[in-house]
Specification:
The chain folds into two domains: 7-165, Orthogonal Bundle (Arc Repressor Mutant, subunit A); 187-232. 49% of the residues lie in helices and 8% in strands. It is built from eight helices and five strands, in the order H-E-H-H-E-E-H-H-H-E-E-H-H. It has helices at residues 7-22, 31-38, 52-64, 97-109, 114-120, 130-142, 185-188, 192-231; strands at 29-30, 68-72, 79-83, 149-151, 163-165. Strands 1-3-2 form a three-stranded antiparallel β-sheet. A two-stranded antiparallel ribbon has the order 4-5. The radius of gyration is 29 Å and the shape is elongated. Mean pLDDT is 83; it is low at 175-201.
């Protein structure tokens, strides 16, 4: 299933999933309710300031992709919208409750650590421990119809790596885990052209350091010999 959401499309789909789970009595959403959800200041990253026309244009685009549908209730002229993104009879994409909670949070708030996801998905699904979060992330990365999530390179100063959804295209900063024991030596070794200068410089520095240590050791040995002769 090839999907490449824009920022606004990811926000609209994320909001529709969130409200379907957290406020089912108010779902599907009217355009005004969806606008408020998209511009919500809590549980959103980044905080957006979309206007009604922008949300309507985004919804119309998603309707054209058959990822959103319009519904009008009996006796009401107000159009309401629901997603067809997943877990419906209209699309083959199916997620467990835990998988859907993570995907929803990633759509709404961007890259997050497992610890952040465990805290922020409490209103959407249940995780008993951190291991369940990591297991679900692993499932989303390894599914045959995916992957839907990728692990990013750990940033300096962070204890945990962050995870990102892949519904907005590939992510350049993804850190793919590689088992070097299964990779040919030619693939695992760095190219000489990129490291040759550094190696030469390091070897020169090491040679100077070894020479200095040998000189100091010889000096200490001579002092020890003198001390021994004096004691005799």
């Amino acid at each position: 299933m090839r999907i490449n959401f824009s920022q606004n499309e990811a926000r609209v789909i994320g909001c529709l999933i969130e409200k379907q789970i957290t406020t089912p009595d108010q779902y599907p959403l009217s355009l005004n309710a969806l606008l408020a959800a998209c511009n919500q200041k809590s549980n959103r990253e980044p905080v957006l300031r979309l206007d009604e026309a922008q949300v309507q244009e985004t919804v119309d685009g998603l309707i054209g992709q058959r990822l959103v549908m319009e519904r009008t209730g009996f006796g009401s002229r107000v159009a309401k919208y629901q997603h067809r993104f997943c877990n419906t009879e209209f699309q083959p994409l199916k997620f467990t409750d835990q998988e859907l909670g993570i995907v929803c949070e990633l759509l709404l708030r961007g890259p997050q650590t497992p610890g952040e996801l465990r805290t922020r998905t409490q209103r959407l699904c249940r995780f008993d421990n951190a291991q369940e979060v990591e297991s679900t992330l692993s499932q989303l990365m390894q599914r045959e119809d995916g992957p839907f999530v990728a692990r990013m390179a750990r940033e300096p100063g962070r204890r945990e790596a962050r995870y990102v959804h892949l519904f907005s295209g590939e992510v350049e900063s993804v850190n793919e885990s590689v088992d070097l024991g299964r990779v040919p030596a030619s693939a695992a070794a760095p190219a000489p052209a990129t490291v040759g200068v550094d190696v030469d410089a390091r070897l020169t520095a090491l040679e100077v350091e070894v020479a200095a240590l040998r000189s100091e050791l010889g000096h200490m040995q001579r002092r020890l010999d003198v001390t021994e002769r004096e004691s005799d």
